[in-house]
Design the sequence.
């Protein structure tokens, strides 16, 4: 049985390394391929090394295990005419619209090697988002029975994680400065929480680079990683018309 570990216990581990891929705007299906490749590598290595993909996505809708078709019906014709694809995924959470200006973060952490359980992982991720928001001068909190992170203006982040062979995958999404009209085209949650962004909360343009730096640093700290290696490209990717796609 898994036992809960405190952050102080995690920080006692030395020389843990984490690879951070800052990839810009990445086609969602390409990200799934990268994630699958990284999962296979980590299964074979059985070490405490971690991988995090940080990117944005062209417009696409994803639906997690708690989602339903009813969340999409209101504007389904608009989605089809706008050529916005829908992906049904084995992650937590419901339906989400993704678009440039929304930061997508996919941490692949080996929970067994880190000595943590699923609850520890989810709590650590949520606290990393809350602490990142505090650095942006935004007060944030979680609410019971939801996967969202909230400010006084509404929900600005969603956690949609999954676990495979005790390795985390999928991740979470932070609305930094997306087109909120686009994100609000779907009923993103069952609790009628208003969607918002860091830019809307701050009433000024939030810095994507600042949010990226902060959330990566917070994740490394929360999960006890001392060595952080940054990459701005991945060998499986190449650029096509400003978007990034996996080689066939």
Sequence:
């Amino acid at each position: 049985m898994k036992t809960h570990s405190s952050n102080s216990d995690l920080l006692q581990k030395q020389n843990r390394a984490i690879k951070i891929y800052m990839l810009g705007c990445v086609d969602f299906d390409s990200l799934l391929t990268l994630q699958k490749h990284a999962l296979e590598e980590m299964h074979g290595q059985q070490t405490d090394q971690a991988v995090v993909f940080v990117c944005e996505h062209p417009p696409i809708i994803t639906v997690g295990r708690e989602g339903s078709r009813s969340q999409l019906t209101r504007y389904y014709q608009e989605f089809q005419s706008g050529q916005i694809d829908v992906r049904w995924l084995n992650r937590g959470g419901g339906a989400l619209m993704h678009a440039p200006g929304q930061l997508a973060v996919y941490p692949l952490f080996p929970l067994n090697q880190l000595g943590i359980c699923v609850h520890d992982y989810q709590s650590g991720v949520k606290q990393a988002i809350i602490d990142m928001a505090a650095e942006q001068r935004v007060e944030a909190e979680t609410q019971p029975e939801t996967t969202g992170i909230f400010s006084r203006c509404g929900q600005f982040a969603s956690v949609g994680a999954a676990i495979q062979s005790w390795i985390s995958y999928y991740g979470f999404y932070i609305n930094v400065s997306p087109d909120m009209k686009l994100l609000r085209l779907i009923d993103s949650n069952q609790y009628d929480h208003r969607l918002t962004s860091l830019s809307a909360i701050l009433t000024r343009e939030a810095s994507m680079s600042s949010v990226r730096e902060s959330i990566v640093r917070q994740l490394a700290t929360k999960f006890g990683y001392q060595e952080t290696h940054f990459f701005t490209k991945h060998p499986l990717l190449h650029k096509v018309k400003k978007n990034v796609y996996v080689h066939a």
Summary: The two ends are 42 Å apart (CA to CA).
